[in-house]
Amino acid sequence: MELPFTVDQFMAVFAAYNVAVWPAQILLYAVALLAVLLPFSKVARDGWIATVLGFLWLWMGIAYHWLHFASINKAAYAFGALFVLQGLLFLFAGQRGQLLFQRPNGLRGVLGIALLLYALIIYPMLGAAMGHVYPNAPSFGLPCPRHDLHPRASVLYNRQGPLVDPGHTPAMVADRLHGGDQAGHT
After folding, report:
1. All residues at 6 or more sequence positions from 69 whose CB lies less than 8 Å from its CB, including other chains
2. What stretch of H or E contains 68?
3. At CA 150, angle to CA 147 and CA 152, rounded to 5?
4. How far is Cα 75 from Cα 145, in angstroms, rounded to an integer?
5. What pLDDT score does 7 carry?
6. What letter would DSSP give residue 165?
């Protein structure tokens, strides 16, 4: 499949995004870390985790897809709409108590933690080792590192509830299919 943009254009979008939103990346990383650590706490966590996940999806839909990626790929408007829908699903289901998060024990828990560490620590280090340095690199809050976090969190934290699982909606499929994953950036 031929992409409607070059790798250089794609990296330039990362640079434009990173410069425009700085220092929001630090806040995004902090809220993602909060979502990772909440299941280890004794506080009421389900609504908070769903809120954090919803916020991250909304951020990517608006701040990245609509305001930056659309400059090189008009399909980003549709992707952004799906990301916003995904975020709203998390917020809606979380506020209604329809998502339950719990930390599993055993191999699944160990695997989940290892995969989360990959998304939050190793992925950025690999990108830097491959020459993708700030601002021309995917930072947290962009689909690339975020899409590594969400499925890995799904391994670690069980989600249950009567509403369709927001982790398996068309937005998750679009996240994997959009041109960013095929641009050879990592």
Report:
1. 13, 76, 79, 80, 180
2. none
3. 105
4. 20
5. 87
6. P
Closest CA to 159 of 94, 62, 91: 94
Q: Which residues lie across from 159 on neighbouring strands?
A: 101
User: 26-44 burial, b for 16+ CB within 10 Å, e for fewer?
Assistant: eebbebbeebbebbeeeee
| pLDDT < 50 stretches in the chain | 145-148, 151-152, 155-156, 159-168, 176, 179-186
- Residue 158: phi and psi, rounded to 5, are -70, 135
As given in the structure block, the two tokens for residue 62 are 């608006």
- Across-strand partners of 158? 102
How many angstroms separate the CA atoms of 130 and 123, rounded? 11
- Specify the pLDDT at position 150: 52
Q: What is the pLDDT of residue 172?
A: 53
Asked if residues 40 and 20 have their Cβ atoms less than 8 Å apart, the reply is: no
Measured CA to CA, the distance from residue 186 to residue 181 in angstroms comes to 9
Say whether pTM exceeds 0.90. Answer: no
64/143 Cα distance (integer angstroms): 8
Q: How many of the other CB atoms lie within 10 Å of CB of 165? A: 15
